[in-house]
Specification:
Length: 310
């Protein structure tokens, strides 16, 4: 599924957008959610892998893909036997590891980089092993593209995971973070027609195929905000109304930012119970750290892979 109602809701979520925009090294706030499928695993299914969603060789040479902050939303309570695996802090070691890969003559990679033959037991001893990071339902994982990650080998339970793929738009408002991927026009048209794109965020085609027509039972979510429209290509980011909402949401003044986020979320999800409002996991202090003037220490925390936002 590419356009279920829950996917459409999460793509327009202002807080999720703010987290990703603040975490990007280039501070590019022009983002569009690249349509992607829901990961659905059932008990007994083989789900193991370990990779980077970037071409590490090109990343080392040109920085290609360095701004693509990755994230996922868990729809189930996960266990250590059915969850994401990652190597915390690997962004500090990727250059040293890649130098060893080059010495072994293994420095070639495609649209993504498989770790199966290049991340050896000696590397695990030096830089860390993949560890399970289970999330509760509704939790969001946010990591840097340099972080080695994967999934547990055999599913022990049902697991649903959403991928928003907030992708940067360049100054021409056409080219995205990865030039080989679809353009802004193409992604926007996919959202409008509710069709799957021809290529994934990396520029590669979908390994397991793609639906050739929109799912007949899908219902299109109506507009909930200008910034939400921009995240699915209904509005452009040079639209003054979009810029006004963005500047409030990512600005230094906490009160209007929190108020706008709350208003948009109520349109998306409905009003929250008072108890949840009092125990909100997103405080004004945390939101202020997401402003456009954030320092690089926040990215360091995210790089550790231990930040969970619920």
């Amino acid at each position: 599924m590419f356009y279920s109602l829950v996917q459409q809701l999460v793509r327009q979520d202002p807080v999720y957008y703010a987290l990703i925009a603040a975490a990007r090294p280039d501070k590019n706030t022009w983002l569009i959610c690249y349509p992607y499928y829901v990961k659905y695993q059932v008990e007994g299914e083989s789900t193991g892998f370990a990779h980077w969603d970037i071409n590490v060789n090109k990343f080392m040479k040109t920085g290609r893909g360095k701004n693509i902050i990755q994230g996922s939303l868990s729809l189930d309570d996960e266990s250590e036997h059915g969850c994401t695996l990652l190597v915390p802090g690997f962004h500090r070691h990727i250059h040293e590891w890649w130098a060893q890969v080059k010495q072994r003559g293994q420095d070639s990679s495609g649209y993504t980089t498989n770790a199966k033959k290049t991340y050896l037991p000696a590397n695990q001893q030096d830089f860390g092993s993949l560890i399970p990071v289970p999330y509760k339902r509704g939790a969001v994982r946010i990591t840097m593209p340099e972080i080695l990650h994967g999934s547990t080998p055999i599913a022990k339970n049902i697991r649903l995971t959403l991928f928003n793929w907030h992708t940067g738009i360049r100054a021409d408002h056409q080219t995205l973070d990865i030039e080989e991927a679809e353009t802004w026009n193409q992604v926007a048209q996919c959202h409008q027609s509710m069709e799957a794109p021809m290529k994934s965020t990396s520029g590669e085609g979908f390994w397991y195929g793609r639906p050739l027509f929109p799912f007949p039972g899908v219902t299109k979510l109506s507009s909930t905000s200008c910034i939400g429209d921009a995240l699915i290509g209904v509005r452009r980011w040079d639209d003054i109304l979009v810029q006004e909402e963005r500047d409030i949401l990512l600005g230094a003044d906490d009160e209007p930012a929190l108020q706008l986020a709350e208003e948009i979320c109520e349109r998306l999800y409905g009003p929250r119970p008072e108890a949840e409002r009092d125990e909100s996991s997103l405080s004004s202090e945390e939101l202020s750290r997401m402003s456009l003037d954030d320092n690089e220490e926040d990215m360091e925390e995210i790089g550790e892979g231990d930040g969970k936002f619920e």
